[in-house]
Structures are given as structure tokens and as C-alpha cells.
Specification:
It holds the Pfam family MIP. It is a multi-pass membrane protein. InterPro entries: Aquaporin-like, Aquaporin_transptr, MIP, MIP_CS. This protein is an all-alpha fold and about 230 residues long. It starts with a helix and ends in a 6-residue tail after the last helix. Helix content is about 75%, strand content about 0%. The protein has one domain: Glycerol uptake facilitator protein, CATH 1.20.1080.10. It is globular.
């Protein structure tokens, strides 16, 4: 069991460290496309690196979808979520240490740590309703791709590629809206280090993606989308 939890810790660490790290350190140079590919490629790498051990959920919303679809037990659900959140928090903490080492100085309060958000002053300045709608639909569709491409009879050898590409597309579309969460752990880690506003808004990224994942799980549990 511990192998699964260690794998989920490492996988989520990788996603947050390289995804958010690219946004913070190289975002101005690589732009939206570069950040989107950083998140997607990190996921693809981990899908083949830890997928055979844990399934590479690296996302509490995905684990919830898998649980509701009746593909994992409650004990693993709790263990996965705790491991994912721990991996995201450690990654964000190390990223904070790294950027503070910039010789010219780096203020996380103003420069950010790749945290998610919405409203005036955040990227495209979209409102709360847009943030909720995007995160709900994006997470739902993301989990549909994950559950569909990993079900029995699907070409599972290329599932990691399909899932990673989907995450890239989601980021290209949604970075200006919320910075793209679709992953409560990915949002929690940076928020804890990014300051008051990020912490005040993190509730949306804990709740809404979880609902999106749960809805996808219901469709597969009810056999609507099962092969």
C-alpha cells in the first residue's frame, strides 16, 4: 500500500513543482502555451513513471472520480488524497525557497507562486461565476477522459498521452480564467505560501473540481460511459 502513496506523493510533487515552477520562473518567456505544456508533459511523464504502481491519479478530484466509479476502496481514497496534498505542499514550499533565492529578489506576495484565483487583478480578471463554470466543466471532462481511457478494453498503453494532451488543452483555454486548477491538491500547495488572497479563494478549487470529478465518476458507475 505504501508504494502507492509514495508514488502519488512523488507524482503530485512533480506536477506542482514543474507546472507552477514554469509559470513562476519562465512564464514571461514561454507564455500560456509553455505553461500548458509544462503541466501536460509533467503528467505524461508521471503517467508512465508511476502509473503501473498507483495509476497516477496525482489529483484528489481524479481519485474521487475513480472511487465513485467503483474502481478503488475508501482506504486508498483517503491515502491517495493525503499523499497528493502532501506532495503539492512540499513542492510549493521548495518552489518558494527556490524563487526567493533570486539575487534581484522575489516577492511571492506580488509575483505569486502559480496559485489559482479569479477576479480583478488576477490574469484575465474573470468573475466568480466564470471561475466556477470553467473548473466544473474542465474537471468533469478531464475525469471523463481519464476514466474512459483507463477502462477495460481501452488502449491503456497510450492513456497517459491522451490524458496529458487533455490537460494541455484545458490549460491553453483556462489559464486566463483561473490559472487552471482541475486539481484540489495543485491549488492547495501554492495557496498556502502565496498569501491571504490565495488562501481566501482556495475553497473554490477544493470544492468545484471535486464536484466535477464526482459527476464523471457517477456516469461511469452507472455504466452510461462504460464500454
Amino acid at each position: 500500500m505504501m508504494k502507492k502513496y509514495v508514488a502519488e506523493f512523488i507524482g503530485t510533487f512533480t506536477l506542482v513543482f514543474f507546472g507552477c515552477g514554469t509559470a513562476v520562473v519562465a512564464g514571461a518567456q514561454v507564455g500560456v502555451l509553455g505553461i500548458a505544456f509544462a503541466f501536460g508533459f509533467a503528467l505524461i511523464g508521471m503517467a508512465y513513471g508511476i502509473g503501473p504502481i498507483s495509476g497516477c491519479h496525482i489529483n484528489p478530484a481524479v481519485s474521487l472520480a475513480v472511487f465513485i466509479a467503483d474502481r478503488m476502496n475508501a482506504k486508498d481514497l483517503v491515502g491517495y488524497i493525503l499523499s497528493q496534498c502532501a506532495g503539492a505542499i512540499v513542492a510549493a514550499g521548495i518552489l518558494a525557497m527556490l524563487v526567493k533565492g533570486q539575487l534581484a529578489g522575489y516577492d511571492i506576495g506580488s509575483g505569486g507562486l502559480g496559485q489559482n484565483g479569479w477576479g480583478q487583478g488576477y490574469l484575465g480578471a474573470y468573475g466568480l461565476s466564470s471561475a466556477i463554470l470553467f473548473e466544473l466543466i474542465a474537471t468533469f471532462l478531464f475525469c471523463v477522459v481519464i476514466l474512459g481511457s483507463t477502462q477495460e478494453g481501452a488502449p491503456s498503453q497510450i492513456a497517459g498521452l491522451a490524458i496529458g494532451i487533455t490537460l494541455v488543452v484545458i490549460h491553453i483555454f483556462g489559464i486566463q480564467i483561473t490559472g487552471v486548477s482541475v486539481n484540489p491538491a495543485r491549488s492547495l500547495g501554492p495557496a498556502l505560501f502565496a498569501g491571504t488572497k490565495a488562501i481566501a479563494q482556495v475553497w473554490l478549487f477544493l470544492i468545484v473540481p471535486s464536484i466535477g470529478g464526482a459527476l464523471a465518476g457517477v456516469l461511469f458507475r452507472s455504466k452510461v460511459l462504460e464500454k
